[in-house]
Structure formats: structure tokens, C-alpha cells
Amino acid sequence: MFIVNLKRALPSLTHSENRIAAYLVDNFQSVKDLTSYELAERAEVGQSTIIRFSQKLGYKSYKDLYDDLIKSSLNDMDISSVSPEEDTVETNEKLYRSYDATLKEVMDYNPVQTIDIIVDRLYLAEKVFCFGAQSSNILAKLFTNRLLEIGIEAYNSEDNFVAISLLKKMKKNDVAFFVSSSGESTVTNKLARFAKQQGVTLITITGIQDNTLKRMSDYSLCCPEFIIYTNFKSITNRCSQLFLIDCIYLNLWKKDPERHNKSIRELDDITRPEFGGLPLLPDEEFSFPENHRKK
């Protein structure tokens, strides 16, 4: 089915290929009579890009994509497109439907048994190193903080040298937790291979498509990606990754709530105002130390 193939290819689409996808979604009913040349003109891309786009979605040619597309119904086209003319309510509803559909699929793609095994491996690990390249590291850092909060020794670094140094010190019972939507990030996959060489358990969150990182993983969770198209770019929601991270975190907390609650309380105590750990209140005036002030 066209829409399934499109979702699987999302992480690897270029800007020009996203333009083609956006045009097909926006003009679903009228594109069924277009040749590849006409589609290239309408999407403002080269005809060769149409061929590459078709092949990236798993079709041998544009004709195969076209044949699959004309079999699709409007109900299949559940990827939303946002236009400047619509009001805030309509845009928000599209985003809500996108998130809702994503979470339903993520439950289907990830068996409870796999999540339970991952939780057990994290619980038994002495150390956990979390990594993601670029925007994926926001999620890796979030998971690192979640683990630290309940007293699990966890590390995160975007610096390759620091990452390798940390992985060198890890043992077989330890875990490397990597996040990559495409599963084809050069930096992420190099570090994943190094982690495997160290004998560390590799747990990953990646896309539903077959990819290099998934094939290296001991355990992998899959995240279907839904997109919201604008006339400038596509916005991929990451709620599936956030959902899986929180699933792992809460089920990990359940393994030893007494010990984990103690860690949370200790952290709360350290960050109370009398310890100076909380941010400044809005009405407090900030000033640099004397030696840092500009002269």
C-alpha cells in the first residue's frame, strides 16, 4: 500500500522527495492521471527525482507507484497537510489526529514482552550510556535524566571522543541505549558497532523500516512516524519515541519503587531552595560574578 511504503521511507526522504510526497498527499484525487514528467513539473523537482522517490518507497518504477496509488482510498491518506489559510482549531485537530494514530501504531509494533526484556536488562545494568545524533540526542538526554532520577548510573554525551571513552569502561552487563529515526546515522552506527565490540547490550529506538542500527541491536523498539506537511517542509512528530521512553521508565520504576522513590526524594532534597539548586525566581535579579562582568 502506498501510504505504508511512504511512512516507512519517511526518515530517509530528501527535501525534494518530501516535496513530491506533500504534493501527492495534497492532491491525491487529481494526481491519478499524471505522468512522471507532469508530476515533476507540479512538485517542482526533476523527473529523475520522481524515479528515485519511487524506488525509495520500494517500487521498481513510477508506474508501479502510480498503480498502487490509484488503488488507495481517501481513508488511506491519513497524513495531514497544513495550509496557511486554515484556522488554529483545524491545525490543532490535524496534529491531534496524527499523534493519536501514531500511538495506536506504536502499541501494535512493540510487543509487551520486548519492553519487559528491555526493562529487565536496564534494571540489571551497572551503567547505561545513552546516545543520539543531533535532534535524537534530545531524547537520549531525556532518557538519561529519567534513569538518573531513579538512581540508575547513566551517561550521555554528544562528543564522540567522550562517548568512546565511556563505552570503553562498560562491561558485558551494561547497556548502550541509542535513538535514531532512520537507523542510518553514520556517527550513531559507528558508536553502536564499537559498543557491540565491547560486548555491551545494545538497545535501540528506531524506525519501522529495516535499517543498519536495527540489525545490530540486541533489542529494538520500532517507532512509526507520521508527518504533517506544510508548503515549506515536513514536520515529523516524535511522540512515539517519547511514549516508549516513558513506558520503559515507569515499568523500570515498578521494579523497585521503594529504592527508586528514595533516589527521587534525595534528588528533590538537593534541589530545594535552601540548597541553591532551583532556578532563580522571576523577581530575582541576576548578576554575573565580579570577575565575569564586562568592563
From TrEMBL:
InterPro entries from the entry?
Answer: Homeodomain-like_sf, HTH_RpiR, RpiR-like, RpiR-like_SIS, SIS_dom, SIS_dom_sf, WH-like_DNA-bd_sf
Q: Which residues form a coiled coil?
A: none
UniProt keyword annotations, A-Z: DNA-binding, Transcription, Transcription regulation
Q: Which GO terms describe its molecular function?
A: carbohydrate derivative binding; DNA binding; DNA-binding transcription factor activity
Specify the superkingdom. Answer: Bacteria
Q: Which Gene3D superfamilies match?
A: Glucose-6-phosphate isomerase like protein, domain 1 (3.40.50.10490), Winged helix-like DNA-binding domain superfamily/Winged helix DNA-binding domain (1.10.10.10)
Residue ranges spanning the membrane: these are: none
Question: Which parts of the sequence are annotated with region: Disordered?
Answer: 272-295
Q: Name one GO biological process term.
A: carbohydrate derivative metabolic process
Q: What lineage is on file? A: Bacteria, Bacillati, Bacillota, Erysipelotrichia, Erysipelotrichales
User: Among its keywords, does the record have Lipoprotein?
Assistant: no
From which source organism is this entry?
A: Holdemania massiliensis
In Swiss-Prot or TrEMBL terms, this protein is called SIS domain-containing protein
Location of the SIS domain = 118-258
UniProt domain HTH rpiR-type: residue ranges:
1-76
